[in-house]
Write a structure and sequence with these properties.
The chain is mainly β and about 350 residues long. It is about 0% helix and about 65% strand. It has three domains: about 1-165; about 175-265, Immunoglobulin-like (Sandwich), CATH 2.60.40.10; about 275-354, Immunoglobulin-like, CATH 2.60.40.3080.
């Protein structure tokens, strides 16, 4: 398999949105199999914190980082959320701790790989992307303090096209599909023209789209003449709650080997999508529903589009959090960050205020 990469370097403030274009895949190079998108992120961050209370306080400071990119070629936008601990600081009244901007995140990789619906990547023009990062502060220890911060980031955004020489992919395989039936089964099927006796079809599976292993084989069926149709149900293992990749390896009697196109199936459990938000758009409040079957303790933070934390609420032993806005929010885009207090797992939900 061959590859070609196009990239761009995007400096920003840590919260600046970017629009940019990268080259499409030139079909004259071969047959496009997949497109892999990467953003490699480095973030510098500095802050000044002062305890303005009359008693000693123990502050904990961390930086949240949210990366989001979308485009007409992606179908589903990509997003990722992580937290970087900056430390704990015991401050007496009026004490100040200050850190000049330094690297808190170095070459962190976000990636998205596509093996279906890749026709829009083909051509001699460009594909357009929208990239929106948010860098924000989490601070605990007191509700009254002085805090200022500065941030900047660098994003190395790239798209890599993986392709085969056009002769590799088989013209006699009329259709090869892999379709999720339920949480336990993927239905694989393919139909063949100019069927030949002695041909062997090996179903291959991969966890990354590049390294494949054999699962099952089927010998050619010439009882129906030159056309044949095949079906196979693949049973999902317990540890395969992820995107799986499938292809056919075709072996001829004369020893020649060739491959079909690659198909991907997202076997991520729907139960993983365990947090939802409504109403959206909103005016005075939002409800966040935790579809996890049990009541838990949650911290909800409302974050503006430029990374400022607008308000914070705690909820004890709930499956739904009703968040009233303490002050009238200006119209625009906001994010609700929900943190489960035991596991510290984060969810970031986007909503609009009218």
């Amino acid at each position: 398999m061959h590859s070609v990469t196009y990239d761009t370097l995007v400096p920003g403030t840590g919260n600046a949105a970017h629009n940019f274009s990268l080259a499409q895949f030139d079909p004259s190079l071969g047959t496009l199999v997949s497109a892999s998108i990467h953003s490699v992120v480095s973030v510098n961050y500095g802050f000044t914190l002062q305890n303005v209370e009359t008693i000693q306080r123990n502050f904990s400071v961390s930086v949240g980082r949210y990366d989001y990119f979308s485009g007409s070629t992606l179908g589903t936008p990509y997003s990722n959320l992580l937290s970087i601990d900056l430390g704990s600081f015991v401050l007496n009244p009026n004490d100040i701790v200050s850190k000049a901007p330094y690297t808190v995140l170095y070459r962190y990789v976000n990636s998205d790989s596509l093996t279906t619906n890749i026709v829009n990547f083909l051509g001699t023009g460009t594909v357009d992307f929208y990239y929106k990062p948010i860098t924000y502060t989490n601070l605990t220890g007191s509700n009254t303090y002085y805090y200022s911060a500065s941030a900047n980031d660098t994003v190395h955004f790239s798209i890599t096209y993986y392709y085969c020489n056009s002769i590799t992919l088989l013209s006699h395989i009329l259709d090869f599909s892999a379709i999720r039936q339920d949480d336990q089964t993927v239905a694989l099927s393919w139909s063949v023209s100019n069927e030949l006796p002695g041909r062997k079809y090996s179903i291959q599976k991969s966890l990354d789209g590049y390294h494949f292993s054999d699962m099952e084989t089927a010998l050619s069926d010439t009882s129906g003449g030159q056309s044949s149709k095949y079906d196979y149900d693949y049973r999902i293992a317990k540890d395969e709650n992820r995107i799986l990749y499938f292809r056919l390896k075709v072996s001829e009697l004369n020893g020649e080997t060739s491959y079909s196109v690659i198909r991907s199936v997202d076997m991520t459990s729907m139960s993983a999508l365990s947090v939802s938000l409504y109403p959206n758009p909103s005016d005075e409040y939002i409800n966040i529903v935790f579809n996890q079957g049990v009541s838990k303790n949650w911290m909800i933070e409302i974050i503006s589009d430029d990374g400022r934390m607008v308000q914070r609420n705690s909820f004890i032993n709930v499956t739904t959090a009703h968040v009233e806005f303490r002050n009238r929010l200006a119209a625009g885009v906001y994010f609700a960050k929900a943190t489960e207090q035991f596991s510290h797992k984060n969810y970031l939900l986007k909503f609009v205020v009218r």
